[in-house]
Amino acid sequence: MLTLLNIQSSPRINNSLSRVLSDKFIEQWKIDNPDGCVVTRDLMKSELPYITQAWLGGAFFPPEKQTPEMLAEMHVSDELVAELKAADQVVIGVPMHNFTVPANLKTYFDQVVRFKHTYNLDGGMLDDKPTTIIIASGRLYTPGAPEEQCDYASGFLKCVLAYMGIRNIRIVLAGGMRAVNFGQETFENYVEKYLPEILLAANEHRLA
Ligand SMILES: Cc1cc2nc3c(=O)[nH]c(=O)nc-3n(C[C@H](O)[C@H](O)[C@H](O)COP(=O)(O)O)c2cc1C
Q1: So what's the architecture of 3-207 in CATH?
Q2: Ligand 1: does its nearest atom lie under 6 Å from the Cβ of 152?
Q3: In angstroms, what CA-CA distances link 84 with 118, 120, 170, 183, 187?
Q4: Residue 158 contacts residue 124 (beta carbons within 8 Å)
Q5: Residue ranges, the chain, pLDDT below 70
């Protein structure tokens, strides 16, 4: 039985393009994997803590130097790492915030990039797994767009996942939401516009 880890980070619960497109992806994934299991990690509900000095001790000190405080600090990371390791496939919904990922998603990666758990001195320790990332943004950042070079979300996500061993990544750049925000387009039209790319991504997961 395949497990899909669904990571969501938009503070918008209604009319979030990244959430709705992720839902469309999941709908198709469930059709392709009727026995599959979807595990959702909604970062707006988890309220992950930032890493601290005690966390760094827990992550890098040898076991004999780890204090109870350090060990306690690792519980969230332990849970998130186990969840990510257990997933066969991943989908991540990302609202672009100030040219990069929202703080909750950065905190998620601070918690899961973990020495001797997800990477070691030889490289990433996770099995490669098909991963679809859906980045919703107000402006366009597709190749050739004037502001293409301001997309600091895609590069960060590709690097941080590859650091842990995940390289089978498709990024859907769902840009142009400002037309919806300014009333020039409907939200539903925008969902339709990106649907073919979402279905293509789901198809790649099916064939993986
Ligand atoms: C705090 C904040 C910062 C944003 N920064 C950017 C940005 O740097 N570039 C951009 O194109 N859109 C930006 N936007 C617009 C969002 O990316 C856009 O509304 C997108 O649809 C958000 O995803 P969601 O609909 O899944 O919440 C920003 C929106 C907010 C609320």
Answers
A1: 3-Layer(aba) Sandwich (3.40)
A2: no
A3: 9, 16, 17, 38, 31
A4: no
A5: none
- Element holding 42 (H helix, E strand): strand 37-42
* d(C-alpha 176, C-alpha 10), whole Å: 16
pTM of structure: 0.97
- With a 6 Å cutoff on the Cβ, whether 100 touches ligand 1 is no
19 lines ligand 1 (CB under 6 A): yes
Ordered by start, the domain boundaries in the chain are 3-207
Q: Looking at ligand 1, which atom is closest to the CA of residue 141?
A: 11
Place of tokens 């590069």: 155
pLDDT tens-digit readout, 29-42: 999 999 999 999 99
Q: Which of 79, 96, 94 is nearest to 39 (CA)?
A: 79
User: Among 66, 5, 29, 85, which residue's Cα sits nearest to residue 207?
Assistant: 29
How far apart CA 119 and CA 131 sit, in angstroms, is: 18
Q: pLDDT tens digits for 133-179? A: 999 999 999 999 999 999 999 999 999 999 999 999 999 999 999 99
Between the CA of 10 and the centroid of ligand 1 the distance, in Å, is 9
The response to whether residue 24 sits with its C-beta less than 6 Å from ligand 1 reads: no
Q: From the CB of 96, is ligand 1 less than 6 Å away?
A: yes
